[in-house]
Amino acid sequence: KEDDCISLIQKSIERFNRIDLLVNNAAIQEDVPFTDTTLEDWYKVIAVDLTGPFICSREAVKQMLKQENPKGGNIINISSVHQRIPKPHYLPYATSKAGIEMMTKTMALELAAQNIRANLVAPGAILTEMNRELKENKKEMDKIIKKIPMGRVGNAEEVANIVEFLASDKASYVTGTTF
């Protein structure tokens, strides 16, 4: 909801007087065949997975543009390999992830001159609550693992390590990139 996103950013500014980093990491998905996907299903996923990051980023950037010492800020969007790899029965999810990729790359180009970086982390299969069916279904897990060059699913800490790098000064010249 737009009001909730705006409130989140405003409360952060009130508390910290600035915003140096925004990580957009909210997502939902539902297993629904394309022809059974209702407009309500579509809007629900798009709202959380694409519109929420758009609103939070827009409001954070308004603050980042005002900041000095240091000037600017950093936005990291969490996406999925499904921004590039289709996922049958998950049309709204895959569409939202493709959208967040282009949103991030466009923001990076538009905001680089103001020292605001925007990057994307698009992990594959990660053992999280969203992928709980992998934990419970050995056949499905084996099927997924066969598609992964490393021969295993990842864990949340591995994704966090990339986010930590992008949030650090070690990535101060990185913008518009997908990891």
Annotate the secondary structure layout.
Blueprint: H1 2-16, E1 21-24, H2 39-64, E2 73-78, H3 91-111, E3 116-121, H4 132-136, H5 138-145, H6 156-167
Parallel strand pairs: 1-2, 2-3
**Low-confidence residue ranges:** none
Q: What's the average pLDDT? A: 93
Query: How many strand units?
Result: 3
**Rg estimate, integer Å:** 17 Å
Strand order of the largest sheet: 1-2-3
Q: How large is the share of residues in beta strands?
A: 5-15%
Count helical runs: 6
C-alpha geometry: globular
The N- and C-terminal alpha carbons lie at a distance of 28 Å
SSE order in H/E notation?
Answer: HEHEHEHHH
Multimeric status of the protein: single chain
Share of residues in helices: 40-55%
Derived from helix and strand composition plus strand pairing, the structural class reads mainly alpha
Could you describe the 3D structure shown?
Helix content is 49%, strand content 9%. It has 179 residues and is mainly α. A three-stranded parallel beta sheet has the order 1-2-3, with helices on both faces. β2, α3 and β3 (116-121) form a beta-alpha-beta unit. The longest helix is centred in the N-terminal third of the chain and has 26 residues, at 39-64.
Give a short synopsis of this structure.
With 179 residues, this protein is mainly alpha-helical. It is 49% helix and 9% strand.
